[in-house]
């Protein structure tokens, strides 16, 4: 903060005793912008697919690492009752496992991160709850799970709008869909009607 204050003073020749409030306001804004930029860089780094790591450990472990690093959890086919939340509790790298449930509750996942689903052929349940960094079209790559996905929850994801939910209609094997508390969705009833037409055999619980 002191460095930024000195920069403002040297650039604009502002007497400190006269414009202290102005300087503090401007430096605070710069500081917040810097924090946002740093967070954005970190978030992208934590969501981008590491191709070298993918080749080494395979899609299921890489996907699990992605979800856990971003604050979510996973269940495996071998241990479906246990929710892995700690990155360090995953099985050793020489132990192969398959993800059954991807629980992104409160996770800082982004659209590019969903590319981690590619190659994960046993995921039958996905939960996107309170994913505040998931963009408006953030669900598009859920289609990597078209063959295996049976249960999907999308809730409290503030950036996703009506159009962003329509991709769900392409999940032909979906058996249960739960959508609620989506503040950016303007016409949830229309979304529900459209999805019911696209997925007539899917049980849906869609509400505000």
TrEMBL record:
Which InterPro entries would you find in this protein's record? LRR_dom_sf (IPR032675)
User: How is this protein named in the record?
Assistant: Uncharacterized protein
The species this protein was found in: Glossina brevipalpis
